[in-house]
Amino acid sequence: MIEFHNVSKRYAGAAPALVDVSLAISSGELAFLAGPSGAGKSTLLKMIAAIERPSSGTVLLNGQDVGAIKQRGLPYLRRKLGLILQEQRLLMDRNVLANVMLPLMVAGAAPAEADRRARAALARVGLPDRAGSMPVSLSGGEQQRVAIARAIVHRPQVILADEPTANLDRDSADLVLGLLQDFNRAGVTCVISTHDEHFLQHASRVIYLSHGRASEGWQRRPVAEDAA
Ligand SMILES: Nc1ncnc2c1ncn2[C@@H]1O[C@H](COP(=O)(O)OP(=O)(O)OP(=O)(O)O)[C@@H](O)[C@H]1O
Question: What positions does the domain ABC transporter occupy (predicted)?
Fold first, then answer.
C-alpha cells in the first residue's frame, strides 16, 4: 500500500511541484498518473522511491515512512521497487544482458545467478534473443522493454514507470503497456505516468495532477470527438 498524507514539495526557487497531495494506492493496484507537463507526475513517482523527499507531509510504503529513510536504508527500499524513470537510460556501452543484470550485481548476486535471472527477465519481455545485442541496435520500443526487464529482474513489489511509452509508436506503446499490465495481473502494484489518452480512457484508476494538486478521474472528451 502506497499512501500520501498531505504531501507538498517545493524545489528551491520554483513554484510548488506538489501541493497537499493525499491519496492511497492499494497493493496490487494499477494506477495511472495524468496531467500536463510540469504538473508534478515525475515528482510524485520519485517521492515513492525516496529520490525526492517531501517538503511537508508523509509518504508511506507498506506503513514505512519513505521520506525518513536514511541513506543506508535506501538499497533495501529500492529492492522492493522496479523503476522505469526518464533519467535511467540504458548503459549504451554495455550489452542488453549486462544492463539487465546490473541491479542484481549491485545487490551482490552471484554472476551466474544474475545471468540466469536476467535471461529469464528478457524472455518475459519477449527479447530472449537480444541478450548479446548493444542497446543502440534496438528500436525504441525494444529498448523500453529492456528497461522493463531491468526493472523487474529482482521481482519488485511495486513498479514505478514515468511515461514509459513516450516517443513510441502505437504498436510499441501497446506492447510496453501490455507487459506492465501482465506484471500487474501477476500481483505487482503499478503506478504509471502517461500523456497517452488511449490508455487513460480505458484505465480503471487515474490520478490527475494539475499544478501539483491531485484529483481522481480522467475527463473523457465529448463522445463525438471520441468517435472521430
Ligand atoms: N530537480 C528540480 N529542481 C527544480 N525544479 C524541479 C525539479 N524537478 C522538477 N521541478 C519542477 O517541478 C514541477 C513539476 O515537475 P515534474 O517533473 O514533477 O512534472 P511532470 O508532470 O512529471 O512533467 P513532465 O510531464 O514534463 O515530465 C515543474 O515546475 C518542474 O519544473
Answer: 2-228
Place of cell 491531485: 214
Asked if residue 7 lies in contact with residue 21, where contact means CB atoms within 8 angstroms, the answer is yes
**The C-alpha cell of 215 is what?**
484529483
Please tell me the distance between residue 196's alpha carbon and the centre of ligand 1 in angstroms. 18
Using a 6 Å cutoff on CB, does residue 76 contact ligand 1? Answer: no
pLDDT score of 126: 94
Residue 207 beta carbon below 6 angstroms from any ligand 1 atom: no
Please name the residue that has the C-alpha cell 511537508: 56
Reduced to 3 states, what is the DSSP secondary structure of residue 219?
coil
Atom number, ligand 1, closest to the C-alpha of residue 209: 21
Residues 212 and 162: their CA atoms lie apart, in Å, by 16
Residue-wise pLDDT tens digits, 114-156: 999 999 999 999 999 999 999 999 999 999 999 999 999 999 9
Cell numbers placing 29: 493496484
Please state, in angstroms and rounded to a whole number, the distance separating the CA atoms of residues 128 and 132.
10
Measured distance CA(178)–CA(156) in Å, rounded:
18
Tell me the sheet residues that pair with 9.
Answer: 18
